[in-house]
Amino acid sequence: MLLIKCPYCGQRPETEFKCGGEAHIARPEDPSALNDEAWADFLYTRSSIKGVLAERWMHSHGCQRWFNALRNTHSDAFLITYEMGKPRPAVDENGELK
Amino acid sequence: MIRMEDAIVQKFSLPALLKESLGAHLGWGRQWGSADLKSSYDAVIVGGGGHGLATAYYMAKEHGIRKIAVIERGWLGGGNSGRNTTIVRSNYLYDESAAIFEHSLKLWEGLSQELNYNVMFSQRGVLMLAHNEHDRQSFKRHVYANRLNGIDNEWLTPEEAKQFCPQLDLSPGKRYPVVGAALQRRAGTARHDAVNWGFARAASALGVDIIQNCEVLGLERDAFGAVCGLNTTRGKVATTKVGVSVAGHTPQLMSLFGVKVPLESQPLQALVSEPLKPAFPTVVMSNAVHAYISQSDKGELVIGAGTDQYVSYSQQGGLHIPIHTLDAICELFPIFTRVKMMRSWGGITDNTVDRSPIQGVTPIPGLYINCGWGTGGFKATPGSGHLFAHCVAKGEPHPISRPFSLDRFRTGRLIDEAAAAAVAH
Ligand SMILES: Cc1cc2nc3c(=O)[nH]c(=O)nc-3n(C[C@H](O)[C@H](O)[C@H](O)COP(=O)(O)OP(=O)(O)OC[C@H]3O[C@@H](n4cnc5c(N)ncnc54)[C@H](O)[C@@H]3O)c2cc1C
Ligand SMILES: [Zn+2]
Prior knowledge:
The complex is a heterodimer of chains A (98) and B (425). In chain A, a hairpin with a 3-residue loop joins strand 1 and strand 2. Chain A contains one helix and six strands. Chain A is globular. Chain A is mostly beta strands and 98 residues long. In chain B, strands 5-6-4-14-15-16-13-17 form an eight-stranded mixed beta sheet. Chain A binds chain B through residues 1-2, 14-15, 18-19, 21-22, 36-37, 40-41, 43-50, 53, 55, 71, 73-76, and chain B through 249, 251-252, 255, 260-265, 309-314, 318-320, 352-353, 409-412.
């Protein structure tokens, strides 16, 4: 089980959290202007990267707040968790925080 | 006797068995040759799981393409093909799914003969338990939809279900009461390793080169953008046809090839108990409590859990996932509460949003993909290989797999087995 650091409550077990999938995928400003391909891209294409992935988590059995995290999907280790609305922290080519 | 070093398979038969038993079984040769990677092939299949091996076999056998390589990063069947709970069934809701899985089930029924290799396909039935009114209605709908498609599936009352599987506990006051069950009698299990080895052996006998410990790193394209070769850890190989069947690693490999895929790779776990005497006659699945159980011929109870909630390539998941499953198993089958679990593991499953597979062409000419089988593609091994062989050989999908195109995510014609409430195994 993962140990996840909620930015508001601190380190808690994974069973208190819900993973909300890839982060920083913004809903298009003007959906009706998109063609089918761009719409499919927004809805379904995910990076599912083997490496550092930005994802959304919700502390559902705690403060019930959403936040973002950088996690290495190869080792499952979290690099950092950060509040919604903040930019994605930079990572170097070795997958470490800059 | 001809050995596999000569790439000719020794046929298994009663006379062969008698002869070898006189020699203390020391005379059996290798089952497939280990080839060196040549500089060019007519077609290359990436991924030596069951799907990739079956694809190569059917390409050689039915499409007369003999210069084929299967390139595997690790060892044969080291991916999900060797990590699954081996449930084989075809009672899916939608016509498209029923057609593709039934195509496969029909091939399973003759597979041991076809491959001259005992894949231990056992049609012991798959019983899906209904625990509430919603389950009952949804399973009956499945039963009727399946019958319209000529696929066997029947509705059993709780008493009939208990007759079929006496280990079910129908006592009152249960947390998950059994209000009925759907039974597909032609469904069952097979031995996963034997399936991989059987296809490898049969493909090798037809001249397919099986290359293990070789990872594909990139795609070479010609001036028109079409496939002209692959980069691997053992150097370049020229080919104009590439079929990719790498399951959980599809997003990673496709991003190297520059093709976007609507997939997420997540761990799925399974576990086995200590071996017991025969104690369980069938396969039981419960969607509501997310548990699947059968007994292997070795005697282990084989139990499948749910997927972890996050993307991961670590081939392990959280312990709370199998514990949740075991809680449900103990509640459903109190006779197993004292059984010890021996091993648990994870595989990386490639999941689409509609939980249906993707098979067919890609935007790159000469590049074909077979993926998205996620948590339920073992049952499809022969069928998927058979259809994908057609696709790679002919350059266009077989009619049965056409609805499962990559393009369906653009057109919106999803095949939503996820919403149909059928679990994926
Ligand atoms: C725990 C678990 C239980 C399951 N239970 C069931 C079940 O009961 N019934 C059912 O029908 N299905 C089940 N499944 C799903 C089933 O196992 C898979 O859908 C199926 O085995 C996929 O087969 P495959 O050949 O496509 O993939 P795999 O067997 O995973 O093969 C892909 C291969 O590609 C190789 N590869 C990856 N990247 C590269 C590269 N760059 N170069 C070369 N090779 C590469 C990998 O090493 C791997 O060997 C289960 C899966 C799991 C994990
Ligand atoms: Zn919190």
